[in-house]
Amino acid sequence: MLSRVAEHIYWLSRYVERAENTARLIRVNTHLQLDLPHHLRSGWEPLVAISGAGESFHRRYFDSREATVVSFLIGDYENSSSIIQSLKWARENARTIRDFFPREGWELMNDLYRSASSEIYLGISPRGRYNYLQQVINGVQTLTGMLSGTMSHDEGYEFLRLGRFLERADMSTRLIDVLTALLEQEHSDIDAYEGVLWMNVLESLGGSQVYRRVTQQGLRWSPVLAFLFRNRHFPRSFLYCLSELCDALKALKNNEFALERLNALEEHIRPLQPDTLDGESLHLLIDELQLLLGGIHQEIGVAYFNYPQEQKQSQSQ
Amino acid sequence: MTIQWKAYQEKGFFDELIGNGVPRPAADKVCAYFASLEDAELQELCKATDLVIRAMGITFTVYNDSEGSIDRAWPFDLIPRIIDRKEWQGIEAGLKQRVRALNLFIDDIYHQQKIVRDKVFPGGLLEDSVNFRPECVGVDPPLNIWAHICGSDLVRDGDGTVYVLEDNLRVPSGVSYMLENRLVMKRVLPELFEENVILPVDSYPAQLYQTLAALSPRPGDFPEVVVLTPGIFNSAYFEHAYLAQQMGAELVEGSDLVVEDDDCVYMRTIFGLSRVDVIYRRIDDLFMDPEAFHPDSVLGVPGLLRAWKAGNVALANAPGAGVADDKVVYAYVPDMIKYYLGEEALLPNVPTYRCLYQKERDHVLANLDQLVVKPANESGGYGMLIGPHADAAEREKFADLIRKDPRNYIAQPMLKLSTVPTLYEGRPEGRHVDLRPFILSGRDIEVTTGGLTRVALRPGSTVVNSSQGGGSKDTWIVDLQ
Fold first, then answer.
1. Which of residues 167-206 of A touch B (CB under 8 A)?
2. Is there a contact between B256 and A155 if contact means CB atoms under 8 Å apart?
3. Which of A7, B159, B303, B385 lies at a CB distance of 3.0 to 4.6 Å from B373, suitable for a disulfide?
4. Do A111 and B256 touch (CB under 8 A)?
5. Which of A296, A205, A202 has its CA nearest to residue A256?
6. CA-based nearest residue to A198, from A207, A188, A189
7. Per residue in B78-89, pLDDT tens?
8. How is chain B split into domains, by residue range?
9. CB atoms < 10 A from the CB of B40, how many?
10. What is the pLDDT of residue A204?
11. Nearest one of B204, B229, B212 to A95, comparing CA atoms
């Protein structure tokens, strides 16, 4: 398999996963803003910071109202992590490897981008937003299923998995980070809403049912964080993403350095004590995890995509 | 309201589907079908076609300065172009004959040049040819074939005669659209395929693969065949990807390949370098190898020509094959057929006056207002004079050009290109078409069933290029027996 093709598959996968997770991120915040009393609402500014595109946002926009931030996150072609830009790049990567990509998968990808781009206005309006975001999520899930069901599960498929789970691990931590913004607030009544907060996070990850069944505990800080970081079976937990990455790497040759980094990352969260984390230390932890994920990306690039040892990522993060 | 074929106007052109107000036998059922549709049904069909094309992502790339590269939906007309199988068999035989002679010519030109010594072809023409590659002299490509893939453009004149307008021997494109047009048609109008016996077109990718695989320098069951593309910004990128996919070959860019010290070509894979046997290159000669040709080409692979000359990799088409694809050389194809095969050409050339010869030049200069004058080595209609549409000053300018450099010019009568009914605001109107069949040469010669019909969608226009308002139609070879 050509290195270039492998890299396109990897990025294609990262971009669709990013589109889905950004949709989930917007959805959770939309709900939170509705569920919390006015003085506890954190507004939309935290999402800009979490998306990693704060600088680009503040250079071009002068307020952080809902409509501004949501349109930045959904439909701004200059924001490299907006839904529309992610889907556009995913489609572009798919187009570059059309010879390799299953035809039905290409048609889905093409359709997903076209419908998302022609209905951006729906996503921005509060009323159309839920459906719009759900369509993006459904579209990505359909594509994932289609590829799993039609693509040869050879090396190319491993790169699809690497991209997906690296991006998901990264984005899932960002989603948890939304909450730290709230929990850093010094309102005495925030505790009363803790359940609501966690419910929203779990819902947005599609994990509330699993959580209840697995933990049989209330929606509290420690068990929820333990679930999101360390559950071995929930497909959006951090540890699950790592184990998928590990499997995918093991199916490829020339994997020592990336595996080494991956093991180091696992070591990092194993001793984690959610009880002892407050909002701020959680935020710091998430920053660390994201850096470590970046290191794994770098090793994958060096091993398979001809990246030089210390090169920055060739497509934007 | 429905379509009334009696009201369809042929306007003095030869129409491929309708003759004197009556559908031709091979088109009878299709015309009856379209006439049976209510306007609303026809509209629905057109919409469905659009959707299918968008969903399938059939595109071509247009580059412009303001928007960069855009990937546009392929313009397609629903009414097929239909040819009776009996007529097609004649055309097919003519194309095979022609390509056989062209390959013999190219091989001769790069070796002994017998045709020049025997004074059938003036050797002086080679000196001016921009497609003659001195680097290729003496090279023996596998099977002695240079043009493995040829796309010849056919047109039909007012009296119904089919002429060869030109042969594309460098990197002819369009075959993927021929294949995709058929898929669109089958999805949108499956019922037409039940009623008619339409010969299938889909064996092309397999034949192409066979043709290419047979060139492999290494014996073995699985030669590594790759398609070399200039990349995603090339207007034919869709086709490069499509053909690679259909053949199960890797689609590579120049940067994916490397020629090592052993003069073999390798591709960079996730597990290191891997040897390549056959390259179906969709990059022009001069951009293919910066070491041998344009030193600043970033599309090519340094050392590729060296590897090819050493016989370690096969290139299709072979470098230098374009020598037979200039407009002056074209004029000699009937002579080549006679010289190499001892046969008369089955498919006529458009009558062509070669300004090199005084008698023919005098005729051209005296009749500039009726002729189309073409320079030898320009494509896409550049640097041409359309006599009947030009003013006196332009004609004078061309007369000068011809006198100064007679070798570089040919002239042809203005053809009345045939038409095919094409939907325009819900009604069929005649639009001019050409036809590009593709001919594969390896151990055998194979011709596509029909080819790509390109149609000039603008009223009265004869420009069929997709970048300039052209579209395409599905092409049917219909068996009436």
1. none
2. no
3. B385
4. no
5. A296
6. A207
7. 999 999 999 999
8. 1-350+415-481, 353-413
9. 10
10. 82
11. B229
Give chain A's mean pLDDT: 88
Mean pLDDT over B54-72 rounds to 65
pLDDT in tens, A8-27: 999 999 999 999 999 998 99
Q: Judged by CB atoms within 8 Å, which residues 107-136 of A form the interface with B?
A: 107, 110-111, 114
Three-state SS sequence of B242-266: HHHHHHCCEEEEHHHEEECCCCCEE
Average pLDDT over residues B36-52: 92
What is the nearest CA distance from A276 to chain B, expressed in angstroms?
Answer: 43
User: Has residue B15 got a pLDDT over 90?
Assistant: yes
Flag if B57 and A4 touch (Cβ within 8 Å).
no
Instruction: Identify the CA nearest to B356 among candidates B328, B335, B337.
Output: B328
The Cα angle at residue B308 between residues B257 and B228, in degrees rounded to 5? 40
Judge if ipTM > 0.90.
no
User: For residue range B168-211, what is the model confidence (pLDDT) as tens digits?
Assistant: 999 999 999 999 999 999 999 999 999 889 999 999 999 999 99
Bridge partners (DSSP) listed for residue B12: none
Q: How far is A97 from chain B (nearest CA, A)?
A: 7
CA A140/CA A13 separation, integer angstroms: 10
A142 CB-contact burial (10 Å; exposed 0-12 / middle 13-18 / buried 19+): middle
CATH code of B353-413, in short, is: 3.30.1490.270
- Domains of chain A, residue spans: 3-304
Nearest chain B residue to A98, by CA: B241
Overall average pLDDT of the A172-184 stretch? 77
Q: Pick A2's closest partner by Cβ from B56, B240, B256.
A: B256
Chain-chain contact of B57 with A96 (C-beta, under 8 angstroms): no
Please tell me which residue of chain B has the smallest CA distance to A301: B270
Distance CA B82, CA B185 (A): 13
pLDDT at position B31 is 95
Query: Which contacts qualify for B191-198: CB closer than 8 Å, 24 or more apart?
Result: B191/B33, B192/B29, B192/B30, B192/B33, B195/B29, B195/B33, B196/B29, B196/B30, B196/B476, B196/B478, B197/B478, B197/B479, B197/B480, B198/B476, B198/B477, B198/B478, B198/B479
Q: What is the mean pLDDT of residues B44-55?
A: 88
- Which of A92, A99, A143, A253 is the best mutation test for B, with the most CBs of B within 10 A? A99
Task: For chain B, give percent helix, strand, coil, nearest 5.
Answer: 35, 25, 40
Suggest the residue from B71, B247, B270 to mutate for an interface test with chain A (most A CBs closer than 10 A): B270
User: Which residue on chain A is closest to B267 by alpha carbon?
Assistant: A2
pLDDT grade, residue B61 (50/70/90)? low
Would you place residue B353 in the very low, low, confident or very high pLDDT band (cuts 50, 70, 90)? very high
Where residue A43 falls (left for φ over 0; alpha for ψ -120 to 50; beta otherwise) is left
Per the CB < 8 Å rule, is B232 touching A253? no
Chains A and B form CB pairs within 8 A to the count of: 64
In this structure, what token pair is assigned to residue A125?
Answer: 């309006």
Tell me whether B69 touches chain A (CB under 8 Å). no
CA atoms within 13 A on the CB side of A182: 33
DSSP B35-73: HTS-HHHHHHHHHHHHHHHHHHT-EEEEEETTTEEEEEE
Q: Measure CA of the first residue to CA of the last residue in chain A; give whole Å.
A: 24
In chain B, residues with a C-beta closer than 8 Å to the C-beta of A306 are: 268
Mean of per-residue pLDDT scores for chain B? 92
Q: Does A96 touch chain B (CB under 8 A)?
A: yes
pLDDT tens by residue, B67-115: 455 667 778 999 999 999 999 999 999 999 999 999 999 999 999 999 9
* Long-range Cβ pairs for the range B287-296 (8 Å, 24+): B287/B230, B288/B315, B288/B319, B292/B135
